[in-house]
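Slide 14.
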Amino acid sequence: MTLLPHSLLFTASAVLLSLPETVLGLPTGLQNVLQNTHRSKEYEYPTDFTRGIVPFILTMTIGEMCLSTLSDPFQGLSNGCISTEADVWLYNGTLYVGHDTSSLTKERTLESLYINPMLDVLKRQNPRSSFVTSPTNNGMFDTSVGQTFYLFVDVKTSGHETFKAVIDALEPLREHGYLTTLKDNKTITNGPVTVIGTGNTPYDMVAPVANRDYFYDAHLESLNEPENAGITNLISPIASTSFADAIGTVTPSDSETVLTEKQLSTLRSQIATAKERGIGARYWETPSYPIRTRNMVWSTLLKEGVALLNADDLEAAAGYF
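Slide 15: predicted structure.
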């Protein structure tokens, strides 16, 4: 066995002691500070529930390819989604939520899955304290308090009866002034939540009402038709359509462009028509596979100026952009 000279032993010890503490498996000074302040009141603040979440123009959808999202409709918020969609079914006076009737349960209601959680988040974002000298109307995101959150309510059962129940169900949000409103059919006041009826939502329950806190999801592909000339952002802040129906099938290729010239022209025309009236465009039923094609469609839609991007795979969409 070879022994190190006494001077080398001292040198080695000095080098070890001079290295950062992490080399020895010990916490650094900064890590120690962070550990000691964990859950300390000095490092918390009233509106930090959505702390660090950056909003993005994603819409959380509950699709056939992503049924796991049915168990956690609000996972979209944690991914920065500024929109979500609830499929509602009216049975015996209660609005149940699910992609189809087979997915409905007594516990899964519009109130329990959407209204109450949203109300809870917004109360956290609008705390009352001695420091708040006037009422606030902050939105869901701590990083962007002025960003509205779009709640699409997809009416699945009888239109008039179901949407009347939806309007009534919004009362807790209405009572606190959290809804985007229209006054005298002229002035929109943005609120933390913008409710848009889609599916079987009756047009005649929205458009003629001069003072309301709910809107209509117009058909994007037919906005340019004469009978829809009167639809503006006062009725439909967002207009939607099926990408598959309006634009067509996308053929996977190695090309840098994913849409044909005709498809791109149609897309641009629809988005332009909407923008002329102050309406945002949204396409659902976009390709989900192959992944490269899906991503290229997402990029194209954003480049061309859609207002909202639908996605079932939220983590993939948020991570991609």
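Speaker note: The first strand starts at residue 56 and ends at 60.
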